[in-house]
Write a structure and sequence with these properties.
Helix 3 (about 55-65) runs antiparallel to helix 4. The chain is of the alpha+beta class. Helices cover about 35% and strands about 15% of the residues.
């Protein structure tokens, strides 16, 4: 048996053990026909009940798709998704710095968006949100993961649950760190 075969077998055994122990890497896929361009349109989506962190993650990406053309609307949407803690000036500044000239970053998380096509996602817009065995820190704090077409590893997005309403709110935008630039902008491509 080759080393690679032994490694595959060992990984398969670990996966079976994880399932037996109740540890799974759950993923939820969302499909949207269009990007909402107002807070009211965002709130009209079924995911806007925010009853799972997966729903909040999906809506966060939809909101961020508005940053280039309507930053104030985007911030309004993100404040809704942030719950009782609206974005601070520091968080607004972080978003401006992270997205300025790089408005392709939010689109990179949707299916079909790659550096080769300038991060143009497929339509309908499809987004996959995942967890791992370490995602649920406690009953009110969860970390989920988003896969960008411009990064090798999934990006972390953090949430906090408000027990009185059962809603999950986004608490971190660190998933917007740099990714590969679109091929058309890459002088080394």
């Amino acid at each position: 048996m080759s080393f690679l075969d032994m490694l595959k077998r060992r990984l398969a055994e670990k996966a079976v053990d994880a399932v037996k122990k109740g540890i799974t890497n759950k993923s939820t896929t969302f499909r949207f026909q269009e990007i909402p361009t107002t807070l009211e349109a965002l709130k009209a989506l079924p995911e806007a009940d925010l009853k799972t962190p997966y729903k909040t993650a999906a809506l966060t990406l939809l909101a961020l798709m508005n940053y280039e053309t309507a930053p104030d609307t985007c911030i309004e949407m993100l404040n809704f998704l942030s719950g009782p803690d609206p974005l601070s000036q520091l968080e607004k500044q972080f978003l401006q710095e992270a997205l300025s000239g790089k408005f392709y970053k939010p689109a990179s998380f949707f299916e079909g968006a790659t550096p080769d096509n300038g991060y143009q996602p497929n339509r309908p817009y499809v987004l996959k949100v995942s967890e791992n065995q370490y995602s649920h820190r406690d009953e009110t704090h969860t970390v989920l993961y988003l896969k960008s077409g411009g990064a090798d590893l999934p990006r972390q997005i953090d949430f906090r649950k408000k027990p009185s309403t059962g809603q999950w709110f986004v608490t971190s935008y660190n998933f917007l760190s740099d990714i590969r630039i679109p091929k058309a902008e890459d002088p080394w491509a």
